[in-house]
Amino acid sequence: MALFVAAIHSGCTMLSGGKAKSVEPTIRGLDAQFGISVAQHDLEGYLAAYAPTAVAVAGDFPLSGIDAIRMNAKRFLSAPGLVYSVVPEKMEFAPDGELVLDHGRVTVVIDTLQGQSKLGAPYLHVWRKTRGEWKLIFEYFRTLEKEESGRPHKAGAEDGEKK
Fold first, then answer.
1. What is the CATH number of the domain that holds 136?
2. Over the stretch 13-48, which tens digit does the pLDDT of each residue have?
3. Of 91, 123, 115, 118, whose CA–CA distance to 20 is shortest?
4. Is residue 158 part of a domain?
5. What are the C-alpha distances in Å from 94 to residues 9, 74, 140, 155?
6. Which of 32, 34, 109, 132 has its CA 20 to 30 A from that of 41?
7. Rounded to two decimals, what is the model's pTM?
8. Residue span of the structural domain in which 9 resides
């Protein structure tokens, strides 16, 4: 997977000016749509961003193709009290403006037997413009970690210990 990301990344340079400025709001809107679709438990709305051949990797768990992503999304969207947000922090644009690397943080809130749990992880989205439409072709986020006070909680780290 690292080779895949490196190969994509090596072909990208940061664009400035009109092309990048015109694409960035579109990609930010697509990221925001994920959260809206999740809030509405809208499976088809959630899947609309993905290309049919998209690959999604959560931690060490790869999903290849829209059917595999659909099966996982059905379980995900059924989680009680689910709130999901994607916050882009940096975008990189291919010189032709047809490919975007979108880096940021994903946050998931769910209800558990112990109360509400907030989880988060860095993410990478790779968007490709095909036939005038932006589609997610690759998604990666590390295994979600519990967050406390807006920061990831490292397993085994106790309050007061150096982290």
1. 3.10.450.50
2. 444 445 666 889 999 999 888 889 988 889 999 999
3. 91
4. no
5. 9, 33, 19, 37
6. 132
7. 0.75
8. 2-146
